[in-house]
Amino acid sequence: MDADMAVNPDDNRFDEGISCIKAGKIDRAIEIFSDLVEKDERNHRAWNAYGVALSQTNQKDRAIHCFEHAILLDPGNKVYERNLSRIKTPPAKRTLSKMKELTPNKRGRLGVVAGIGIVILIVLICLTYLSLSGMIPYPLPKEGVISSTEAPIEPSPSLPTPRDNISIAPEPEQKSVIPELKPQPPLKPETRIHFIDVSQGDAALIQSDGKNLLIDAGPVNSGQRLVEYLKKQNVTTLDMVIASHPYDDHIGGMIDVLDAFDVKKYADNGVVHSSDLYKKVIAAVISDQAVRMIVTAGMKIPFTNNTIIDVIGPYRLTGHPDEDSLVLKVSIGNISLILPGDSSEVRNKATILKLPDHGSDDAIGPLMNVRPQVSIISLGSGNPFGYPRSATLETIQEIGSQVYRTDVNGSIVFQTDGENWTAQTVR
Questions:
Q1: Which residues make beta-bridge pairs with 311?
Q2: Left (φ > 0), alpha (ψ -120 to 50) or beta: where does 106 sit?
Q3: Cβ distance 399 to 367 under 8 Å?
Q4: Separation between Cα atoms, residue 253 and residue 223, nearest integer Å
Q5: Is residue 196 part of a domain?
Q6: What are phi and psi of 398, to 5 degrees?
Q7: Mind listing the pLDDT tens digit for each residue in 103-119?
């Protein structure tokens, strides 16, 4: 990304164009990026952004040209290639269902069957009329003879002949015994929660009903490690990525993630940060054409039917990125999980708590409020901050919580059906 930034002769103009796309001022964005590529025809970032702006209009051919030009200048760029593929591939049109396709044929067959039935009915009526009128002889059974297609059955000599005052009780009807099938309870869908070892940082993956949601992406130097871990979990698409707050140890690996996967939605708290890393991440989100969502306390983040995500903080912004972190509560049936970023303002109850600030003293208050069954500490081995602090570990022991640490256990994977949970560690 640093090389990309060096190609651009006018960062301020580029950032202004990106802001225009975000604000829906597409015409202004097109004007800015048109000027930038005119000044420097080798500015592949501007060509790509130009294509993104044009793709928001009906100028599809011009957008394709821009993406192709960007790829020509920077061959192998996955973002540019994905943008080109998306605009060239129109959304699949819905086809009529098989039931609708077969409807005319069904009507035809029904008409034929109905016609045959009417003919048979007419024939039967005619035969009945002719029989009753005597025109067709109808054989009547002789007295004491049972009419049947089989040979006549003679009465058995060993049985008494029935008389008016004698009744023969019919034999009890034999009922076939069909074993009762007891309905089997359906298997409960399971949700997997991965607390990924990204050294001194945070990253968590939630997998439910075939969908994938990533919360934070660790530091810059762990970006590729995170990508490799996600690929091992068969992740190809991230339905949503959430950044709790814009500090490097939480969004550092985002650019690698955006380059490696198709990210459909990106959510954050909307607080603008002055760091170059933050600016690059937001630019990458827009360039990747992911839908950006600004979420605040009180909102529900749509994910799956059995995995509910509520934003429970912050209710007010303090101006400090740690305390302004998004605080998320994930509920799967009777099992719940709180991921507070680095915020110490956590008061809700939960089964599992990811400790804020990597086990610093700021985690003591949330531990006492939540009193979780399980405490997760995400941190790097031998970190320079002395985390986790001894007071935090003592509090975990005091409340009787089970503790997992990424510096000791590696990645930790929880699996739950909403009633019970299991955990395993992966090195």
A1: 328
A2: alpha
A3: yes
A4: 4
A5: yes
A6: -65, -40
A7: 344 444 545 555 676 76
- Show the DSSP H helices in 168-318 as ranges: 223-232, 248-251, 254-260, 276-287
Same domain, 83 and 197: no
The C-alpha angle with vertex 364 and arms to 359 and 365, in degrees rounded to 5, equals 135
Mean pLDDT score, 153-179 = 44
Q: What is the pTM of this model?
A: 0.64
372 CB neighbour count, 10 Å cutoff: 25
Backbone angles phi, psi at 221, to 5 degrees: -75, -5
pLDDT at 58 over 90: no
Domain with 304 in it: what CATH number?
3.60.15.10
| In the block, residue with structure tokens 């929660």 | 193
Place of tokens 């790509």: 48
Pairing of strands 402-405, 374-377: parallel
Final residue before a domain boundary, out of 69, 88, 107? 88
- E strand intervals along 239-298: 240-242, 262-263, 265-268, 291-294
Q: Which domain holds residue 389?
A: 191-426
Domains in the chain, number? 2
